[in-house]
Amino acid sequence: MNRFYLGNSEDEMEFMPIIPLSEDGEGEQDEKIPDELALLPLRNTVLFPGVVLPITVGRDKSIKAVNDAYKTDKMVGVVAQKDSTIEDPTVADLSEVGTVARIVKLIKMPDGGTTIIIQGRKRFKIDEVLTEDPYFKAKIELLQDELVDDDPEFDAYISSIKDLATQIIQLSPNLPSEASIILKNIENASFLVHFVSSNLNSELKDKQLLLETNNLRHRAELLMKLLQTELQLAELKNKITNKTKADLDKQQRDYFLQQQMKSIKEELGGDTNDREIREMKRKAEDKKWPAAAAEAFTKGIEKLERMHPSTPDYSVVYNHLDLLLDLPWNEYTTDSYDLKKAKKILDNDHYGMDKIKERILEYLAVLKLKGDMKSPILCFVGPPGIGKTSLGRSIANAVGRKYVRLSLGGMHDESEIRGHRKTYIGAMPGRIVQSIRKIKSSNPVMILDEIDKLGNDHRGDPSSAMLEVLDPEQNSTFYDNYLELEYDLSKVLFIATANNVAAIPAPLRDRLEIIDLTGYSIEEKIEIAKRHLIPKQKDAHGLKDAKIRIANSVIEYIIANYTRESGVRELDRQFAALMRNLAKEVALENPLPEAVTNEFVEKVLGKPRYSNEIYKVGNPPGVAVGLAWTYVGGDILFIESSLSEGKGDLKLTGNLGNVMKESAVTALTYLQANAATYKIDPKLFKEKSVHVHVPEGAVPKDGPSAGITMLTALASAFTGRRVKSYLAMTGEITLRGQVLPVGGIKEKILAAKRAGIREIILCWQNEKDIKDINPDYIKGLKFHYVREMNQVLDIALLKK
């Protein structure tokens, strides 16, 4: 059955079959129906004689037709569209049989639309469509119903239709019960058929077939079949609804019974979650944990047994016990004490780094002899790209331990290290305990990467939380807030990595054994490229079996002209670019070059990016070359000074830090005090303004290393004597003219070698640092060791 309430028929109309004004379905006999009528196409519905429908008219054509009809005889021909999806129907889209309707009421809606209430009068057939514009107008022929007189079978049909319709109303919860009262009070058989047909929940073609059937008895018979189909559907729907409701009732009943059962078990001191707790107890039997952990587990499991699984605290206690079971209490991997094998692994994985390898072998030797010791906290400090992090994995392989890496860069929450109290929502153990849990070993090699990049803010200071982790005297009783127990970290081999040791807080630095990793010399880089970088990039680019020869001279050409770094990360990228180009040639089936040449390198990588010519050009007076240390390695620094007319003031530019500014002021004061010694007119200091500039102003620069370079540049400017070419220097000065030692010597020397410098001035106390460098790496460099500034100026300044 269709709905007895307002339904929606897209944008064309809204309809609701309502009670007719009269039951004489064919209308008043004296009502004159014209031969020509305006047609009103309807979507989704069929109008039957005697039935009253409210319709919202949306299409422009339909609105005009309705308005014109309402102004004249109020009659329109209502026909159903064959396809309700068509927005603008043609003559072919209209049904041939429709119903003449009288417009009972026309209502203008507030939104500008038009709603009409129409009552069906007589059925008609379209003889001929006269016009299509501005709306359909057709010549019609009225159709007469073939009535049945005193036919008992017809009367039985009518009675059955009433019964079936009443049953459908009772089975459909959406239909009001008043609808059955309306049915019982309809006496006109013809109208009853039309009224029920109008409310039928059948397809449009079935309703149209009912309208087109002339014989009333046949119409009633067809209606009976459609009603029986609808009744079966209603019964089936009702059956499914009742079955679903019964299933839901059963679920609710089971739930309440389970709740009662759990309550009874709790009263009896029983178990609410047998399987999970039994499994936990079974795991606990195999654990070799300390007494405190065993006691905490026992208390936790007792608490879990008393708790209801649906309470929020149940999951908190369960997760805590799960962590206790997952942690490898007193579970250690066996260390490999084969020192020769360990040395071989370290040498194969990393070229050079003799100091670190020696330190690891010492640690293993003590461990082998003593059997047990607190692990040292090593900290590898050096420029990026020299292999600090990857060295940690090599150490783990050499010692035979598991390896875990913890990235500390940007960490600013203390709870990341110590964990959260487990009462907080979403609480977790700290990253240290999480890593131990994941690796399933209490003595792994743990890399604390970028320890100098730890942050701090209002949430806490993680570097302070690291103090307990990285103190060999304290970390045997490391306390995690979530675990709420002490955990022994003393067997963990912690290896921290950092670029800048100055950025590590002093109390934390005090707990670390700092091992300086200096940058690589060109010779070392060539070996690293041959042993590691080139094979790795060949493999990564599918050229493992390709025969590609790269001579040492070509590798040196790439290092000198395309990289400026202490490590080998940029060099690795340049080899990757070369291999990509060779891979393309292989894919295009072009022959590969027999050997990679400098010309091929230039073709692939472009023109050389760096040149040493700038350091070899003879500079004007006032310009000196210094050596600087940065956290990415050694660097060359020009210091320029110039005199101009003024009042003896000093101007410093080039983004200098406080220490470098102080060095410049100290140098100028020393020159003023010793003007006679260096044959400088004292009046110059009052009549000339001094400007000291360090190029690359966008790069911050600081440190005492440029002290003697500042003084040399100023002395050159005041005396007019040029500084010797191919010469660089580094050292700190005092007001007395003494030269003091500085750090980062190896990086500075290697930077000077890369830049083509031939002579270097150093403090005499830095001579020991030079002896630590492999003589092969500094071949061709001449060193001048000085104690006082006058020695520096004698070496650096040329005669006029």
Please describe what this structure looks like.
This protein is elongated. A hairpin with a 2-residue loop joins strand 18 and strand 19 (633-645). The strands form 8 sheets. Strands 3-5-6-7-8 form a 5-stranded mixed β-barrel. Strands 10-11-14-9-15 form a 5-stranded parallel β-sheet, sandwiched between helices. The chain has a 4-stranded mixed β-sheet with strand order 18-19-21-20. It is built from 27 helices and 26 strands. The longest helix has 52 residues, at 216-267. It is α/β, with parallel strands linked by helices. Mean pLDDT is 81; it is low at 1-19 and 25-30.
Using brief descriptors, characterize the structure shown.
single chain; alpha/beta; five-stranded mixed barrel; five-stranded parallel sheet; 800 residues
Please specify the SSE layout and strand pairing.
Blueprint: E1 7-9, E2 13-15, E3 36-42, E4 52-57, H1 60-71, E5 75-80, E6 97-108, E7 114-131, E8 137-142, H2 152-171, H3 178-184, H4 189-198, H5 204-212, H6 216-267, H7 274-285, H8 291-306, H9 312-326, H10 339-349, H11 354-370, E9 378-381, H12 388-399, E10 403-407, H13 415-418, H14 431-439, E11 445-449, H15 462-469, E12 478-480, E13 485-487, E14 493-498, H16 506-510, E15 513-516, H17 522-540, E16 549-550, H18 552-562, H19 569-587, E17 595-596, H20 598-605, H21 613-616, E18 623-630, E19 633-645, E20 650-653, H22 658-673, H23 684-687, E21 688-693, H24 707-719, E22 727-729, E23 732-733, E24 739-740, H25 745-755, E25 759-763, H26 767-771, E26 782-786, H27 789-796
Helix pairs in contact: 2-3, 2-4, 2-6, 4-6, 7-8, 8-9, 10-11, 10-12, 17-18, 17-19, 22-24, 24-27
